[in-house]
Amino acid sequence: MTDDLPLSPLEEDEALAAEYVLGVLSLADRSAAEARIKNDSAFAARVAAWETRLADLNGAYAEVAPDPALLPRIEARLFAAPARPARRPLFGWLAGALTAAAVAIAAVVLLAPPAPAPIVATLGEEGAALRFEARFDGQELTVTRVAGSAAPQGQVQEVWIIAPDAAPVSLGLMEGDSIAVPYPEAPAGWTIAVSVEPAGGSPTGAPTGPVVAAGVITDL
Amino acid sequence: MTTEEDPVAELLLKVAAQDRAAFREVYSRCAAKLLGVLLRILGNRAEAEDALQEVFTRIWLRAGRFDATKGRGMTWLIAIARNHAIDRLRARPDDPPRDDTDMLDQVRDTAPTAENRLIAMGEAGRIADCFATLEPDRAEAVRGAYLNGLSYADLAARFDVPLNTMRTWLRRSLLRLRECLDT
């Protein structure tokens, strides 16, 4: 064995790509490898080659049928669906407690005449270089950039909602200047924030980049 | 690789063009496999189903980056699921080394034995042969990491060696594996 010889720089890259695909790295090392994948096409190709090499192991994963309710939930999350008062909550872990309130609010909204969606939160001070507004029309929470521009090339602005004392939950990526997410209600006192993430969004499911704007949802 | 031989790849190209019917078709073909991946790595049904929603969100948002000339559709989907599950594992605040032997026992159970290795060849391809060229412990470490999401810390605890030793072993094993797989 040649375990004691140091690896050449090329071997180092190759080993890092393999370690990344294997999944053995710490979160910090994984994030660093992901940043390289985005910026270094040779390294990205090494990673893709390892995904293919190890794909023969995928046969060992069993198939497990998901709960039939999952696909409708995913579609509701991704595609703006027509309003239904009893729509299932979108983010299981945070929305459970909100269901009853959502039903009540959605019912009220359905009876109300159409009106411009009210602003429920402003992110960034008046006159700030980068500012966002959140509006809620009873079905969708819409976050729009009203001042400033998109993240630089290779990065993206990601929108988060944060319940008091809870971890942020991603509402999605600001690919244009606005995102709309079906949402059961606009919970007063929760925070909406925008962070800058690598293209494709936070690799961890939690904000990793700087928070560039934030605001608290106010009572309608 | 043409998409004619890879129906999932063909569907992903349609998903990239915002085709919702194709998205549903990808789900009906692949969700059970991806949930199997997530469940094995995360070890918890509720979290695995939550992760599955996130994985399909990413599939919808990232389908435009899938390149059918670089690999199969299913391989791409499983990579998204594995990466997301491993990110979740590594982000757990108290991620203690999983030094119990259950995870590796599970690997042993599914690892091809000498006799069924021949049967599994069609599916396992060259990789079973190449694993056989590694020391058994090291092959087991590679397999355990890939299938169950074990970290270096988990592996070091399981094999009772310092983390750096584990890393040196595994990196050497991976490079030898590549040499074998690529020839």
From TrEMBL, chain A:
Occurrences of domain Anti-sigma K factor RskA C-terminal (ranges): 99-211
InterPro entries: Anti-sigma-K/W_factor, RskA_C
Keyword Transmembrane helix in annotation: yes
Keywords attached to this entry: Membrane, Transmembrane, Transmembrane helix
Keyword set includes Transmembrane: yes
Transmembrane segments: 90-112
PANTHER family: ANTI-SIGMA-K FACTOR RSKA
The name this protein goes by in its record: Anti-sigma K factor RskA C-terminal domain-containing protein
Source species: Paragemmobacter ruber
UniProtKB/TrEMBL annotation, chain B:
Family to which the UniProt record says this protein belongs: Belongs to the sigma-70 factor family. ECF subfamily.
Matches recorded under Pfam families: Sigma70_r2, Sigma70_r4_2
Record keywords, A-Z: Sigma factor, Transcription, Transcription regulation
Domain named RNA polymerase sigma factor 70 region 4 type: residues: 126-177
Domain of life per record: Bacteria
Protein name: Sigma-70 family RNA polymerase sigma factor
All residue ranges annotated as the RNA polymerase sigma-70 region domain in the record: 27-92
InterPro entries the UniProt entry points to: RNA_pol_sigma-70-like, RNA_pol_sigma-70_dom, RNA_pol_sigma70_r2, RNA_pol_sigma70_r4_t2, RNA_pol_sigma_r2, RNA_pol_sigma_r3/r4-like, WH-like_DNA-bd_sf
Record flagged with keyword Transcription regulation: yes
Keyword Transcription: yes
SUPFAM superfamilies attached to this UniProt entry: Sigma2 domain of RNA polymerase sigma factors (SSF88946), Sigma3 and sigma4 domains of RNA polymerase sigma factors (SSF88659)
